[in-house]
Amino acid sequence: MYISETKITVRYAETDQMGVVYHANYLVWLEVGRTQLVEELGFRYASMEEQGVLSPVVDAHLSYQKPAKYGEQVIVKTWVEAYDGIRVTYGYEVVNSQGECCVKANTQHVCVKKESFRPIILKKHFPEWDQAYRRAME
Q1: Residue 108 and residue 59 in contact, taking contact as beta carbons nearer than 8 Å
Q2: pLDDT values of the chain reduced to their tens digit, one per residue, 138 residues
Q3: Which Pfam families does its entry note (predicted)?
Q4: Is 102 exposed, middle or buried (0-12, 13-18, 19+ CB in 10 A)?
């Protein structure tokens, strides 16, 4: 299985009054990790969108294990957890500099036509992405 690693330094604006990362900011980091994974697989979401296809999140699960704090560097590990030709589930772990897991998560996405939000079959419309996702899970 291919795992992408994205380094992020926790910014002050991402923390709450307790000095730890505000829970919703992890979703932003997951998007950063997911975008990097897709780029490492050789693609760009922007090129898909230019062709009238979007990839919205249809489900998200986050399990908070340990808080990340201001100034700390974390790594967002991202991989393709499941893929069936229509839906793709990305898996994530956010790990701090001590190697401790801060968050375990997954998000599920469906590629849809921009004008109708009707799902598309990735293999038919973007066969290279389909093959890349299947290879990434090996």
Answers
A1: yes
A2: 999 999 999 999 999 988 899 999 999 999 999 999 999 999 998 888 999 999 999 999 999 999 999 999 999 999 999 999 999 999 999 999 999 999 999 999 999 999 999 999 999 999 999 999 999 999
A3: 4HBT_2
A4: buried
Overall domain count for the chain: 1
- Cα dihedral value 17, 33, 109, 39, nearest 10: 150
Give SS3 for 117: coil
Q: What sign does the CA torsion over 111, 115, 117, 120 have?
A: negative
Annotated catalytic residue 84:
no
Residue 109 DSSP class: E
CB neighbourhood size of 106 (10 A): 17
Q: Which CATH number goes with the domain that contains 67?
A: 3.10.129.10
* pTM (two decimals): 0.94
Tell me which residue range forms the domain holding 48. Answer: 4-136
Name the token pair of 17: 């009054």
